[in-house]
Backbone:
């Protein structure tokens, strides 16, 4: 009898000790990614989820993809508290009106510098991009509200805003979730999509490389690249790709005779890398690098 009682006590203790350990294995937050279409330039929209609430990073470019993102949020069963916009490029916020209508209680936010950039550039963005988007573009393009802190709270967990720093835009920001080592870097990181270098002189290219070094130093386990070739994992491979591309770019520019030659050199160096909008990224980036067109203003 005593032996059976001791065995029962031991089993009870083992169970009580095992339960907290199992709970500790469950991450406090998780990330789900929606891969948008080529029409939205293969932007990744990410949903950071807690037990009940969620934060969305980067609404997409087209209305169609924004509706897909809204469906992802609804399917999650979470309450959307915030929508965070990483930077001023329209493929990362243009269709946010869909999400604003679907989730009217969610705060749409960005770093104050990003908000100022969007308001400054919104009139010519509408002129530049609306004709191509046609009915798939927004009716009421707008800007997020300015954050008053560098931290967004999600169920007591910190989501830290990094930047602004040089990325494919001079004022790029990222969201860092230290508890799960998740990095949502927007267009500071690409993964096997040609980097947008149409707004860069050589100094800006070098500064972007320094920004990537800063992100690598975080040692993230999850990295959701701003743009990625479909089928790639959300890991540090995007950081490695972006770092190598930025390292090789000045060397390839120095070897090239003109923009067309530079395009061939880049494609040979990065043969599996894709482009969007009929080679929009590489054609314009190489023409800027070779002085065949002025640096873009976005």
Residues:
């Amino acid at each position: 009898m005593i032996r059976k009682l001791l065995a029962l006590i031991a089993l009870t203790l083992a169970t009580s000790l095992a339960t907290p350990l199992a709970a500790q294995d469950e991450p406090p937050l998780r990330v789900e990614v929606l891969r948008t279409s080529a029409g939205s330039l293969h932007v990744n929209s990410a949903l950071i989820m807690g037990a009940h609430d969620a934060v969305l990073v980067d609404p997409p470019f087209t209305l169609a993809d924004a509706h897909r993102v809204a469906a992802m949020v609804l399917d999650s069963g979470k309450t959307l508290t915030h929508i965070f916009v990483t930077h001023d490029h329209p493929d990362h916020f243009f269709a946010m009106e869909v999400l604003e209508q679907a989730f009217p209680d969610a705060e749409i936010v960005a770093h104050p510098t990003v908000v100022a950039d969007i308001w400054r550039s919104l009139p010519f963005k509408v002129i530049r991009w609306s004709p191509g988007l046609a009915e798939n573009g927004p009716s009421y393009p707008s800007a997020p509200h300015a954050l008053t802190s560098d931290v967004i709270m999600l169920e007591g967990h910190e989501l830290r805003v990094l930047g602004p720093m040089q990325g494919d835009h001079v004022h790029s920001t990222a969201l860092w979730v230290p508890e799960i080592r998740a990095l949502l870097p927007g267009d500071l990181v690409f993964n096997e999509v040609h980097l947008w270098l149409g707004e860069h002189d050589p100094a800006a290219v070098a500064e972007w490389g320094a920004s990537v070094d800063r992100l690598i130093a975080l040692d993230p386990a999850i990295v959701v690249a701003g743009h990625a070739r479909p089928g790639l994992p959300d890991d540090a491979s995007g950081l490695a790709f972006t770092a190598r591309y930025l390292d090789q770019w000045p060397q390839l520019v120095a070897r090239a005779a003109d923009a067309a030659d530079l395009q061939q050199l880049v494609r040979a160096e990065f043969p599996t890398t894709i482009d969007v909008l009929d080679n929009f990224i590489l054609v314009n980036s190489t023409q800027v690098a070779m002085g065949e067109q002025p640096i873009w203003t976005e």
Observations:
- The domain at 30-290 is CATH 3.60.15.10 (Metallo-beta-lactamase; Chain A).
- Helices lie at 2-25, 63-76, 96-102, 112-133, 202-216, 237-255, 259-269, 280-289.
- The chain has one domain: 30-290.
- The longest strand covers residues 157-165.
